[in-house]
Amino acid sequence: MNRLPLALLSLVGFFLLSGCGGPGSGDSCDGGDYVCQDDAQALECRNGTWRPLACRGPLGCRELADSVRCDTSLNQENDGCATDAEGKGVCSPNGAALLTCQQGVLVKTADCSSCAVQDAQAVCQP
After folding, report:
1. Which residues partner with 123 through β-bridges?
2. CATH number, position 101
3. Pick from 64, 85, 93, 95: most CB atoms within 10 A?
4. Is residue 13 domain-resident?
């Protein structure tokens, strides 16, 4: 009896099952947790649903022992933003706009001649 097909079938089953472990965008959840969906995207449990959060910065999304870190330094207008970022501003990647987190989405709130982060706050020069 040839065992190669059985071994191949087991291997294919392993790869199919290995992608089924974590939550996905739109799945239901409890609490206010965060997880990394992949290297460039986190998921936030918000109002009972996993929502995607872009992590466009060079550090991407990293799961540490006690937290999830999402580098939002290069996030763009209309990207999702976390509950703890509500009302806070970030600079657009090109420094020409101030983006503010409003109802879970980064919204352009000002045009800038330059924008920079000073003391953990985005400062827009008109």
Report:
1. 116
2. 2.30.130.50
3. 85
4. no
| pLDDT tens sequence across 31-60 | 889 999 999 999 999 999 999 999 999 999
Rounded Cα gap, residues 115 and 95, in angstroms: 5
Q: 3-state DSSP call for residue 29? A: coil
pLDDT, one tens digit per residue, over 5-36 is 333 333 333 333 334 558 999 999 998 899 99
Instruction: Determine the 3-state secondary structure of 77 from DSSP.
Output: coil
Residues making up the chain, counted from first to last? 126
Q: Domain check: are 50 and 91 in the same one?
A: no
Element (H, E) at 69: strand 68-70
From residue 88, how far is each of 4, 10, 26, 27, 83 by CA, in Å? 57, 49, 25, 27, 10
CB atoms near residue 74 (< 10 Å): 16
Radius of gyration of the chain (CA): 19
Q: How many domains does the chain have?
A: 2
**Which residue do the tokens 């071994």 mark?**
7
| Whether 79 and 100 share a structural domain | yes
Q: What SS3 state is found at 85?
A: helix
